[in-house]
Amino acid sequence: MAHVDTPEIQAGNRRFIKTAMKAPLLAADHELDLARRWREHNDEAALHELTEAYMRLVISMATRFRNYGLPMGDLIQEGNIGLMQAAARFEPERELRFSTYASWWIRSAIQDYVLRNWSIVRTGTTTAQKSLFFNLRRLRAKIDNPGATHLTQDKRIEIAKQLNVKAIDVEHMEGRMAAGDRSLNAPLGDDDGGSEWQDLLPDEAPRPDEWIEQSHTHDKRKQWIARAMAGLNDRESMIIRERRLTEESVTLESLGRKLGISKERVRQIEHAALTKLKKALLVDVPDPLDAGLVA
């Protein structure tokens, strides 16, 4: 998707970056003191000084992602969120420089933003997809012929090995990154009488006659099962409902505790009840398979 900053926004970004780059660097002992004051005493002045000093780190990280067509100001703002997350989680006692710890959070926040906004279609959700998205261009430029339209299978395999992903994943990401977003309301062509791309999408919903048939069959099944269940005693009915007619089946052991019997006895009652149900259903439905009662 195209994102364009106005001249006013660009000027504001430049002023912000210029100011941020003037913030003094922190000595290790002072940085540690600020982190402790914020963590142990919620000292907001210490937090402000700590994050302001590392705003240059956010800007540097955001610059690495500027070629994805997203506003620099938005990348910086997302990086700031990562910086604040790092400050909230940083543990001074681990004797690690804050900049080292914050780099991961800043990068992660910016990458998530890029993945959410680079396209209207979610591009990467798994670790492998994210790795491909952010490294495919670099690796392709390094190992492939610059004039080539598509990677050869050998090149895909080489990239897949470097990123520890499957070659088919490389092929899919290559195609996804090469294709731009297309509106479903875009016309098919000049001679198609106003037809749009969305006109080619199949409707997978049931047709009216299919919906009526499915609804009728569903109601009949409910009637058959209700009549069959009426022949069970209270304990059998309860076990069948808990074990067979709920989304999350209750365990034999749990039912045994509830009824004050062993789980083996519950299993025996369940088996007997299922036998009763089968006999009762066969009275109404001679062929349960055709009626959809048996998978």
Draw up the topology in text.
Elements: H1 7-21, H2 28-41, H3 44-53, H4 55-63, H5 72-89, H6 98-117, H7 127-143, H8 153-163, H9 167-178, H10 208-229, H11 234-244, H12 252-259, H13 263-284
Helix pairs in contact: 2-3, 4-5, 4-6, 5-6, 7-9, 8-9, 10-13, 11-13, 12-13
What can you tell me about this protein's structure?
The protein is mostly helical and 295 residues long. It has 3 domains: 1-118, Up-down Bundle (Four Helix Bundle (Hemerythrin (Met), subunit A)), CATH 1.20.120.1810; 125-183; 209-284, Winged helix-like DNA-binding domain superfamily/Winged helix DNA-binding domain (Arc Repressor Mutant, subunit A). 64% of the residues lie in helices and 0% in strands. Helix 10 packs across helix 13 and helix 12 (252-259) crosses helix 13 (263-284). The protein is extended and about 85 Å long. The model has no long low-confidence stretch (mean pLDDT 81).
In short:
The protein has 13 helices and no strands.
Structural class: mainly alpha
Mean pLDDT across the residues is: 81
The assigned CATH architecture of the largest domain is Up-down Bundle
Counted up, domains total 3
Q: Please outline the major beta sheet.
A: none
Say what the CATH topology of the largest domain is. Answer: Four Helix Bundle (Hemerythrin (Met), subunit A)
**CATH class group of the largest domain:** Mainly Alpha
